[in-house]
Design a protein that fits this description.
eight-stranded parallel barrel; signal; Glyco_hydro_79; Heparanase 2 (inactive); hydrolase activity, acting on glycosyl bonds
Length: 588
């Protein structure tokens, strides 16, 4: 057994530690040969061979509890909303009490408002006060737009967080409207010809209200394609937006543009790294000129996947404006829309592409600004908004949880998930405001996993690799200090999360400092008969469902007695909290 070669979480162990592990393996094998317990998994013996040492699937696991290998942002798992919600109408429903509750469940986090249509946003400072135009013949069916206005009037009367419970018929009409609009949006995306989107003052109010009520920090993407005749960036719309936000005392961070390396293919106009660096410097000066935002954070350049053009742009940008941004942002998507099997989400070669991409980006960043924080933005399991009946299922969770683990081990400070709601099929919440599998994975991650990343040491048994063939790891193991926000566990506890991509059960024995400790298991499996294509998740055998619009289900752990082996069912994801270990790395 081995972890991926590129993963820094596997440390060379000392001869003493290795000797102790070998002793444990031998003891475990000897004891299990005399035991008839059904919990001990064993490969069928070949021919007349007696089951031996090399046929066991036992894995030994220990964690370095002395010091963390990385310390990440408290908002490590963060969210993104696509500007298309302005066009398809869902922006008007961000005041939904249920939607705000679901977003609040993933706080603290950043909320990036950006995507392909960032560079087609135009701010219009219309007061746009909600005005009732008169009653219609049918309160809900005949005057849908008036219903939105009535809702806005009711919200305007509220103090603090403005929340609403929208009638079912109103939501049904919105879903019909959105379905029609999204066909237009998809056509734009496939043709690479985009229309402008106007973000009004009221639109910004609704967006900020959602973020603020949910405990999210808003990062607003600005249009970098608003250009003067000499190709310099036109700041008129941005200055108007900054003044409005400052007047409302909106605490916002900023970003300029989206995948600038792709502008030539999108609009036939290129913006090179030198020009982009000048634009960011101009934006920083603009922020400093508005008193309320003179210390606001600025992130960028939000480059695309690190292929040749994106890397060249990032290199030039970092050389000229690396000190201007507070963190470097880039995007990664795993596959294109041709994927048509759930099993495609389990391919280890696909999962490992992220490590290679992170290495490319961090190499460029460290060459110019060593130690600068790197963020992975716009992350999703597929291009073109995802794949229907696949990227919104349990199967996509393997990519998502592995992304979080890999990014954490390699020091990515923040991962922004595209998208929290609405756009395509990669969202966490569907248009009925129901959480999808990736939401539940994210919620459990937020509840249990803290920002301190720990080194994992693994020893086990595997057959010798065939000559010329690379064996990629199908058992992914990551460890962090348990989240300090979780008051069910004292400081010093450790959370381990394990992804089993094998088609067979795997057994993990806790060794070293983890030995003979009580463990809380949070095992997430697909619910129902759809298997990997399930859109519902069960936690330790219990289906996860919202109790009501404001109440989450209780996430009940299963207690594993001290010394018990962890049994991971095939193709599942589990989180395990090691209680009362008093890890030195996690006490501070």
């Amino acid at each position: 057994f081995c972890m991926p070669k590129s993963s820094p979480c596997v440390f060379p162990w000392s001869s003493l530690w290795l000797a102790s592990l070998i002793t444990m393996v031998v003891q475990s094998v000897l004891s299990s040969s005399y035991s008839s317990s059904s919990s001990s998994y064993q490969r069928p013996a070949a021919g007349d061979k007696r089951p031996g040492f090399m046929e066991r699937t036992l894995v030994l696991l220990d964690v370095n509890t002395r010091s963390p290998i990385r310390v990440l942002n408290d908002n490590f798992l963060s969210l993104q909303l696509d500007p298309s919600i302005i066009k398809d109408g869902w922006l008007d429903f961000l005041s939904s009490k249920r939607l705000v509750t679901l977003a609040r469940g993933l706080s603290p986090a950043f909320l990036r408002f950006g995507g392909k249509r960032t560079d087609f946003l135009q701010f219009n400072n219309q007061k746009n006060l909600a005005k009732f135009r008169g009653p219609g013949p049918d309160y809900y069916l005949k005057n849908y737009e008036d219903d939105i206005v009535r809702s806005d009037i009711a919200l305007d009367k509220q103090n603090g967080c403005k929340l609403a419970n929208h009638p079912d018929i109103m939501l049904e009409l919105q879903r019909e409207k959105a379905a029609t609009t999204q066909l237009v949006l998809l056509k734009e995306q496939l043709s690479n010809i985009y229309s402008n989107i106007t973000i009004t003052a009221r639109s910004l109010d609704k967006l900020y209200n959602f973020a603020d009520c949910a405990g999210l920090h808003l990062i607003l993407g600005l249009n970098a394609l608003h250009r003067n005749p000499d190709n310099s960036w036109n700041t008129s719309s941005t200055l108007s937006l900054l003044k409005y936000g400052a007047g409302k005392k909106y605490n916002i961070s900023w970003e300029l543009g989206n995948e600038p390396n792709a502008y030539r293919s999108m609009v036939g106009r290129a913006v090179n790294s030198t020009q982009l660096a000048q634009d960011y410097t101009k934006l920083r000066t603009l922020l400093q000129s508005v008193r309320y935002y003179h210390r606001a954070h600025l992130f960028g350049p939000n480059a695309g996947r690190p292929r040749k053009n994106a890397i060249l742009l990032l290199d030039g940008f970092m050389k000229n404006a690396g000190s201007v941004v507070d963190a470097v942002t880039w995007q990664h998507y795993y596959m294109d829309g041709r994927v048509n099997k759930a099993e495609d989400f389990l391919k280890t070669r696909l999962l490992d592409t992220l490590t290679e991409q992170i290495t490319k980006v961090t190499k460029v960043v460290n060459a110019h600004t060593p130690g600068k924080k790197v963020w992975l933005g716009g992350l999703g399991p597929a291009w073109a908004g995802g794949i229907n009946n696949l990227s919104d299922t349990y199967a996509a969770g393997f990519l998502w949880v592995n992304t979080l683990g890999m990014a954490a081990v390699q020091g990515i400070d923040v991962v922004l998930r595209h998208s929290f709601f609405d756009y395509g099929y990669t969202h966490l919440v569907d248009q009925h405001f129901n959480p999808l599998p990736d939401y539940w994975f994210s919620l459990v991650f937020k509840r249990l996993v803290g920002p301190r990343v720990l080194g994992v040491r693994v020893a086990g048994l595997q057959r010798k690799p065939q000559p010329g063939r690379v064996i990629r790891d199908k058992l992914r193991i990551y460890a962090h200090c348990t989240s300090y926000y979780n008051h069910n566990y004292v400081r010093g506890s450790i959370t381990i999360y394990i992804i089993n991509l094998h088609r067979s059960r795997k057994k993990i024995k806790l060794a070293g400092t983890l030995r003979n400790k009580t463990v809380h298991q949070y095992l997430l499996q697909p619910y129902g008969t759809d298997g990997l294509k399930a859109k519902h998740v069960q936690l330790n055998g219990e289906k996860l469902l919202m109790v009501d619009n404001e109440t989450f289900p209780e996430l009940k752990p299963k207690t594993l007695r001290a010394g018990r082996t962890i049994a991971m069912p095939p193709m599942t994801i589990g989180f395990y909290v090691i209680k009362n270990i008093n890890a030195y790395a996690c006490r501070r």
